[in-house]
Design goal:
The structure holds two protein chains of two kinds. Chain A is of the alpha/beta class. Chain A is built from twelve helices and 14 strands. Classes of the chains: A alpha/beta, B mainly beta.
């Protein structure tokens, strides 16, 4: 048996902020924003939620669903660009919270929005080499955006966790590769509270170049064509880019619809493509073939080809990702500012 | 403060208490001595499953400074299905809570020791009816 996904879990915070609510404050037309971005609302974390708590909740769901003994998890990698500490790994917090003992490899990954899939690759390598039995890879974020910045419409919070192993695999990894270059399209310097970005003309040299190159190269390497896949999931910084990437590559709207979650929860950064992939696993059938391509600014893409196995039929998949997406409650912009601590308090 | 907290991480990140194997009494926070059995006590550490119901609650409107942003918040007595009665914060709007309501554990932040201090995490509860990660959603 090849290495693959043994179990998965997701977490999406309960609060939602609508495009209308943001546009009202900044004097913009919400219909133009929705038409331009393909985003209608985004998830907002509670005051007591951060990347560590989202990671733990997603990890616990994965462990519970897969009936994994946490002590058999030999590595934990948490990918995020909003780790609560700059120095002190989120993975240590996850390890103690899930009770996996002390003998595990751990580290935090950062590669903008693709750090979670980088974690899956690292776990896969360690599982295949026999170093560990199970690895836990998490992509989670409570992404930052400056008030009034276009990013504010989409930067949201959420995460997904994957137990990677060789036993009881529900989706085997047939192939994975990465396409990486030094492309400064989006960054956040040390000590800065909000990220900066190159603006509207970075799409083609950054997102589209990396996503389409990784996707094309993995299909060339394996000999598959778009019609061989039941589903495709591309990183979702907004609702437009993944649709256009799919069209460029020759995938249909039906192939990407199930995994296109950005419109209703926003861009969960390191959680983005992996929450979409989890939504696909929620309905996948044995024999289905799935293409997953993440993207992280800076820039790079990780491409994966998954084959869904027979074991998915008896794997518990409730609550589904779309149930979680649809169970949010809306907050107003003032509450959002308080929840995200964007209001400067005295003392 | 920091050493006091990190010694308790195991018990706060999850609901790890103790049970007296002599009389069956369950304790949270964990005790290393059973007050009923005394010298006959046989204490063993036990992880409780994190589900229970609200026995009573109070809504806190006048908060310590570090919880000012969180107000109003709910503190409840929760009877665990497989454990003792414990006190914990319940994360929901005050109008959503009621006595007898089913709740499930959730991992949350307790507070931050200023902007450059340690972040303290631990277990809180959330009503099962709004908990998207509860099994019986």
């Amino acid at each position: 048996m090849r290495a693959g996904i043994v179990s998965y879990g997701t977490y999406i915070p309960r609060f939602r902020l609508s495009v209308e609510e943001i546009a009202k404050v900044w004097g913009e037309n919400p219909d133009n924003v929705k038409a331009g971005l393909g985003v209608y609302e985004k998830s907002v974390p509670d005051l007591d939620e951060d990347t560590a708590t989202i990671s733990v909740e997603a990890a616990r769901e994965a462990i519970e669903r897969g009936e994994i003994n946490p002590e058999r998890i030999g590595a934990i990698f948490v990918g995020s660009e909003s780790h609560p500490y700059v120095v002190k790994p989120t993975a240590t917090i996850v390890g103690d919270a899930i009770g996996c003992g002390n003998r595990f490899h751990a580290g935090d990954f950062e590669f903008a929005c693709k750090a979670g899939t980088a974690g899956i690759q690292a776990c896969m390598g360690m599982v295949k080499s026999g170093m560990i039995e199970f690895g836990l890879a998490i992509g989670a974020d409570t992404s930052q955006s400056a008030p009034g910045d276009p990013l504010e419409y989409s930067a949201s919070a959420g995460g997904a966790a994957f137990v990677v192993g060789k036993k009881r695999v529900i989706a085997e990894i047939e192939e994975t590769l990465s396409f990486t270059s030094d492309t400064p399209d989006f960054w956040r310097r040390e000590g800065q509270p909000y990220p900066s970005h190159g603006g509207r003309f970075t799409g083609i040299p950054a997102y589209f170049r990396h996503v389409t190159s990784a996707a094309t190269q993995i299909m060339e390497k394996t000999g598959y064509k778009p019609s061989d896949f039941n589903y495709a999931v591309f990183h979702q910084p907004n609702g437009k880019f993944p649709v256009r990437a799919a069209r460029i590559l020759g995938f249909t709207k039906e192939q990407i619809a199930q995994g296109l979650v950005v419109g209703y929860i926003g861009n969960t950064y390191s959680g983005s493509s992996v929450i979409g992939f989890s939504a696909v696993l929620d309905i996948a059938k044995p024999g289905d073939k799935i293409l997953l391509v993440s993207f992280g600014s800076g820039a790079g893409s990780d491409a994966f080809i998954f084959n869904v196995t027979d074991l998915i039929e008896n794997y518990p998949r409730v609550p589904a990702v779309w149930d979680k997406i649809n169970s949010g409650i809306t907050v107003d912009y003032g509450t959002y500012l308080k929840l995200r601590k964007k209001i400067r308090l005295k003392g | 403060m920091i050493p006091r907290f990190w010694r308790k991480i195991k018990y706060r990140y999850d609901i790890v208490g103790s049970v007296c194997e002599n009389c069956g009494s369950k304790f949270y926070p964990p005790r290393n001595f059973c007050p009923i059995c005394r010298r006959r006590s046989k204490i063993k550490e036990q992880r409780f499953n994190g589900r229970g119901k609200v026995l009573s609650y109070t809504i806190v409107h006048d908060t310590p400074d570090e919880f000012k942003l969180n107000k109003p918040y709910i503190v409840a007595l929760i009877e665990l299905d497989d454990g003792p009665i414990i006190t914990s914060q319940v994360v929901c709007n005050p109008e959503e809570i009621e006595v007898g309501m089913r709740v499930v554990k959730t991992f949350r932040k307790y507070f931050e020791d200023g902007e450059d201090g340690v972040i303290y995490y631990g277990t809180k509860f959330v009503p099962e009816k709004i908990a998207t990660n509860a099994k019986n959603f």
